[in-house]
Amino acid sequence: MKAKIKFSNPGMLTTIQDYGRNHLQDIGISKGGAALPSLMEIGNELVGNKMQCSFEFIFNGPVVEIIEGEISVAVTGHVNFEILKNHKLEKGICFRSYILKKDDQIIVKNTIDSVYGYITFGGSIQLSGVFDSFSCNPRSKIGPRDGAKIKKDELFDFNVNENQSEYKLTREPDKQFNNKIRLLEGPQFHFFEKKSVQNFFNNPYEITTTTDKMGMRLSGSKIENQLTSNIKSEAIIKGAIQVPADGQPIILLTDHQTIGGYPKIAVVISADFEKLIQIPPKSMITFKKVNYKEAQVSYELNQKTIKNIINSKTKI
After folding, report:
1. What pLDDT was estimated at residue 19?
2. Phi then psi for 147, rounded to 5 degrees?
3. 201-212 pLDDT, tens per residue?
4. How many structural domains does the chain have?
5. Are 129 and 89 in contact, with CB atoms under 8 Å apart?
6. I want to staple 208 with a disulfide (CB 3.0 to 4.6 A). Which of 29, 115, 135, 217 is the partner?
């Protein structure tokens, strides 16, 4: 079976995402992909997909209309949305799937106390990947359709999954988080004055409005560097916290560059990265230093939690 959808309103910034591109940083292409892979994975599970691919949106989401056929769809995240089904408008429920038919719509209004949400359709999207990925990076123009964000009235075709059904979760991801982010020491941790390091871990920082998917700029206590604010450019990873000459930290996010020349005071542990990236600008965050053992245990617990959430899927 086939279906066609149309983005009547593309929202503020809606893109196609999957798990990103591996093994390309050495030629200057970052992995990219979904900001919150767990929400994408849950959405794909709810619509019965083997291929992990979703439409990612921020703040104000899109309006999507089914033009041809019928297809299952799920919205994941903390999202305010409506479903127009059989010409009747109803409040949408996150973390469940709906089977929509021609002329039905998904009307996403906004994310709630968060940044990212996902819409996932039950089937394989009819696009050609770039470097074995559907992920789109509008800034770098990498991905299908030159990596562009979704445009008004843009159409997409799907090969629809067979035996579609509607599902829900009996256990959902947490919607409320504290704003304390756990960190490991960075490779240049010793560059910074002891007093500045204490302030970094004891004082809150504000997420500025200049934050995007490439990096999160913070404003707070200045971090004084006792060696040098510039180093030879070296490979960097998601979650690394760079400190430029002005002493205001920058956390590298999903679409970060592949190399950088600023010292790195710390790195966000994997288990806290998705929590961090969902915190909206103008919010205050604090940091806590942990060791590798705690980071590893937290990662394993986080992965187990996601698996348990997915296994809670039940047919409606």
Report:
1. 96
2. 70, 15
3. 999 999 999 999
4. 2
5. no
6. 217
Residue appearing with tokens 């916290």: 241
Contact predicate 163/304, CB 8 Å: no
43 and 70 belong to one structural domain: yes
DSSP labels for the chain?
A: -EEEEEEEE--SSEEEE-S---S-GGGT------S-HHHHHHHHHHTT-SS--EEEEESS--EEEEEES-EEEEEESSEEEEEEETTEEEE--TTBEEEE-TT-EEEEEEESSSSEEEEEESEEE----SSS----BTTTTBSGGGGPPPPTTEEEEEEEPSS---EEESS---S---SEEEEEEPTTGGGB-HHHHHHHHHS-EEEPTT--SSEEEEESS---BSS-S----EE--TTEEE--TT---EEE-TT--SEE-S-EEEEE-HHHHHHHHTSPTT-EEEEEE--HHHHHHHHHHHHHHHHHHHHTEEE-
Contact assessment for residue 190 and residue 264, using Cβ atoms and an 8 Å cutoff: no
Same domain for 164 and 192? no
Angstrom distances, CA of residue 183 to CA of 241, 242, 266? 9, 13, 6
The encoded tokens of residue 277 equal: 């990236």
The whole domain housing 259 covers: 180-306
Q: Are residues 73 and 219 in the same domain?
A: no
pLDDT at 228: 84
Count CA within 13 A, CB hemisphere, residue 228.
Answer: 5
Q: Contact at 8 Å (CB) between 303 and 153?
A: no
**Please, are residues 60 and 110 in contact by the beta-carbon 8 Å criterion?**
yes
User: In which residue are the tokens 């209309």 written?
Assistant: 65
Distance CA 18, CA 51 (A): 9
Same domain, 49 and 192: no
C-alpha 45: how far from chain center: 17
* pLDDT tens string 99-153: 999 999 999 999 999 999 999 999 999 999 999 999 999 999 999 999 999 999 9
